């Protein structure tokens, strides 16, 4: 991975993380100050708490991606240490899906006249879980690459002994 690619990805990660922190701070301020009264159409307080938690799952994933990019740049991504970050990303995505299902459940009673909205939101939750499964498949590919890298290192060591 080139330096320009790493810098560009890190810049995107910083902007997204900063924006997430800003939105989280606004949500916490709205919760603490009570400046946005509920009009009764939706329970805003639970939605705000869920949004704060959902943004937190994204932040966890962003930090882990940052660490993985660092490992790629150093050439150490094909090691067992990378699994920890990938596992946390999978957990964060699964938690985000659960948060989304909670939003769907809170929103569902207001959608009795149009249940299609709830079905679409449920489908989005399933898609989020699909992303977690995709990352799990990528983790399996990483495991194969690490195993092959270890095997190649052993073969190189044996070849060095022969020569």
Structural class of the helix and strand makeup? mainly alpha
Mean pLDDT: 89
Main sheet attributes: strand count, strand direction, barrel closure: none
How is the quaternary structure best described?
Answer: single chain
Shape descriptor = elongated
H/I helix tally? 4
Stretches with pLDDT under 50, minimum 5 residues = none
Rounded to the nearest angstrom, the radius of gyration is 21 Å
Number of strands: 0
How widely separated are the two ends? 33 Å
H-E string: HHHH
Helical fraction equals over 70%
Give the strand content. under 5%
Question: Overview of this structure, please?
Answer:
By secondary structure, this protein is mainly alpha-helical. Helices cover 84% and strands 0% of the residues. Helix 1 packs antiparallel against helix 2, helix 2 packs antiparallel against helix 3 and helix 3 packs antiparallel against helix 4. The longest helix has 48 residues. The radius of gyration is 21 Å and the shape is elongated. The chain starts with a helix and ends with a helix. The model has no long low-confidence stretch (mean pLDDT 89).
Could you give the topology of this structure?
Layout: H1 3-33, H2 44-74, H3 81-107, H4 115-162
Helix pairs in contact: 1-2, 2-3, 3-4
Quick synopsis:
The chain is mostly helical. The protein has helices at 3-33, 44-74, 81-107, 115-162.
Notable traits:
single chain, 163 residues, mainly alpha, 4 helices
